[in-house]
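Blinded run. Sample ID left blank on purpose so nobody reads anything into the name before looking at the predicted structure. Input follows.
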Amino acid sequence: MKPRYYQPELAAATGFVTVDIGIFGATSAGFSAALQASRMGKKVVILEAGGHLGGMTTGGLSRTDSGRKHLVGGIAREVYRAFGKPYGREEEWLFEPRVARRVFEEWLRDAGVPVYFHQYLKAVRKEGERLTEVVTESGLRLAAKIFIDASYEGDLMAAAGASFTTGREGNRRYGELYNGSFVSLHHQFDRHVDPYVVPGDPSSGLLPGIEAGPLTSPAEPDHRIQAYNFRLCVTREASNRIPFEKPEGYDPMEYELLARFFQKGWEEHFMRFDPIAGHKVDMNNYGPVSTDYIGGNFGWPQGSYAEREAIFQDHVRYQKGLLWFRCHDPRVPKEAREALNAWGLAKDEFSETGGWPPQLYIREARRLLAEVVMTDHHCLGIEAVDDPVAVASYQMDSHNCRRFVQNGRVLNEGDVQVRVRPYGISYRSIVPLRREVGNLLVPVCLAASHIAYGSIRMEPVFMVLGQSAATAAVLAIDHRVALHDLPFEELRAQLEKDGQVLDPSA
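Blinded prediction complete.
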């Protein structure tokens, strides 16, 4: 019943598998890539380093961050229409996780696409710049003509030798406006909260989760990434409600900042509760101290599977502890405690893990370095690409990256929320440099700056990019050309034939 990230004992598949297209990562992008490749007549398989199909689309992110819906086409649009059928609607963007999971499972089964779960990447084999084989910890060997890394972490692209980056570039790297460190008014301590263990005494040390360093210039790069959390599916229906539980290792001191903020008179007591179908809500981060575990994820992008498991469990413990604190600690206003205690995890969701999502929300990890790097110049309409394989339209959205002390008070830093103009995402941003890897596509950890990725990183866009990557792979195989030599107009024609929207002005 305990949610886990790394479970090597469950990896049963071994042997040698040969396909046309090998996909690493059963995210929404991996799903759409596999479906598209199958529809185009190719043999395809998905390897997933975990036991969950569908990434965040089936993992709790049920209030879809869609941007402008009319720009979402192809398989992605088919998916949201399929989500609507159980509810008697033409389409549904506020769905239950179990409905999404059922659609993904049925479609892949009907397409004859096998998914091998708990396949943790161990090694790759290459001939020159071509990736020939993926080897997992269980001994499974996968050979393919073209590979697609659809994981949230970019593990395959890194192992294959593609250049990548992590963290925040700083504004000077690409001449951007909104990269680097920022102190925002959103999700912020809007009144003075003392950061020290003993209030007013710096020698007593800082409360948990606060960094001692000063605010750096937005021009300077750093290692920080936006915070992760679990998107919980919760309900007030008594027959379907699992009360929030106290986690092992619970320490109320971890939530001392929130207690002090309540004592300062903060009255926005509830977290983000977005209604979805089935009398449930998608619980998200809201406010200065919430479900985002700020600063707890810096080791994730390049961590080993065991290291990520430790980070995963820290996030479980932190978020369960936060809910327990808000439900039971007497320093939380009574009306806020009573209101939250009326809610609980939905019993009919994620039954294998006691109602807790198995998928941690990996908002960013590695990012490819390719011929074209998407930046805020694209998001703001200053630059445009001539080879779009998807259109993005959601705001540049970075959650906070750290807490620090300034003039004796605690502040959050890293939140950016800036509207964009719809813009195309370059084909060249999902293809590694030719000299590094010649037969790999990266539709999730694509080449983008930290802040541009904050706009691109939406599940509908990942599905669109996954379909586009698979289409490029099939055309390259059929015409016996390298991915880098595939005529874009031919790719565009096939994408539009399959219902993709590639014109940002549409």
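Unblinding after everyone has recorded impressions. The first strand starts at residue 16 and ends at 24.
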